[in-house]
Amino acid sequence: MFRLEKVFQNDDKLFLAFYSLFKIFIIYCSIYTFSILENNTIYNISNYKIYKNSAYYKFSIYLPLIYFLLDFFLNKNKTFFSYKKLISKKDLINFFLSLLLVISLSKIFNIKIYLNIIFLFLLIFIFTNLIIAKLLCNFFYKYLINKNIIQKNIMLIGKYENILQIIKDKKNEIYVYKCCLILDENIQNINKLRNEIKIPIFNTQDDIRSILEYHALGQIWILDNKSKNLQEMISYVVKFSVDLLIVDISKKLKFNKLLINNVYKFSTFEASKFYGVNLFIKILMDKILSIFFLIILSPILLISIISIFIEDGFPIIFTQDRTGWDGRRFKIYKLRSLKNIKFNKINQVKKEDSRLLKVGAFIRKFSIDEVPQFINVLKGDMSIVGPRPHMVEHDIYYSGILPEFLKRHKSNPGLTGWAQVNGLRGATPTHELMRKRMEMDLWYLNNWTPLLDFLIILKTFYVIFKHKGV
Questions:
Q1: What is the pLDDT of residue 467?
Q2: Which of 150, 146, 142, 219 has the alpha carbon at shortest distance from 180?
Q3: Which of 3, 76, 418, 452 could make a disulfide contact with 444, Cβ separation 3.0–4.6 Å?
Q4: pLDDT tens digits along 276-320
Q5: For 79-107, how does the pLDDT look when each residue is reduced to its tens digit (9 = 90+)?
């Protein structure tokens, strides 16, 4: 529902931001609690006046603030790699630097700090709670891994010996090898590999698109040992939407958490921009706006439902398989706008289409038939803004004509998109129109920001009423 595996696809920045905020909350709460319990009982814990009149009131504001600023500007980590430790070296340095800065600035800001044995107890209390906070975050991060919420589903591509090498290495828990594509023509090597590893093995003759979809893959690792076949390996998968990493397994480096399996250098050949804090913001906005629009549009939705029922009976909702992020299938919801008769559903709807209901023609003009897709957004199958999802049959057909067509699936599909607000809303009956829509979608994927989404949403309202759909 929240696509957390995608939020954490490339790094742990969001989790690190959460951890940073959690630490300053713990520091503040520790000082607040200590200031009350120093001369009172637990029954006075909610007495804000005691806290405000204590000697620690200003200290409780400045210490967390300075700690947060230091954590924000000095923290260059992208990975929460110290989750097995009680506390990291960085946290220790930040805490004592913050403390020294507050003490140094105490005279300027008139902060009363009594450097006595009681103050030492306060520091021990804060530090103990920081360790507890770290343990809680460690537990939560481990929980996300164990529940396969933030794990990365990976396909390995390479020669027999390269695949065997990386599978036998001790791997980071966040990586899950779902399958591998072996490039050896020697059938004996393929059979040997099947006996030695427990993941599905494929070769270049298999349908890679179906493999990616079935295994819900998020990354492909191309195992490069400085051989001449790197471009050949890339050519097999470059047209698909999954992130591509080139992993140099020619030599092992010193243990480093920023390397693949702590020992291999890697480079990102192609990756989606949809991850991290920006993606989390997009997901939150999707959920909030979907609930808002469903409430606002509920009267129109109800009238449309009644009109469809009166004209043509049930069903009211039309569902169809569509292609989502990384080629994953999902059921899209729409108000039924066509007559309940047998016809070829692959044929796109055109103006004056004989299959259209009377009410269907109206609801399609103003995109009212798309309103149920806000439920798809709440489920996590779609976003409000993104490339429009096509029928699976169209994806298969056009991917054979337009080499980059499947790259449109590098994000959640959307109710509206960059193509739709730039004159390509509605049916795309010709190859040229579909090519233009694909180019618009790829531009959006390569230039996406939360601000761009906001602008597209605003422009969509104008397009709906100015340029009515089919």
A1: 59
A2: 219
A3: 418
A4: 889 999 999 999 999 999 999 999 999 999 999 999 888 999 899
A5: 886 666 777 778 888 899 999 998 888 87
Question: Domains of the chain, with CATH numbers?
Answer: 4-146 (no CATH), 152-271 (3.40.50.720), 277-466 (no CATH)
Q: Which residue would you say has higher pLDDT here, 32 or 11?
A: 32
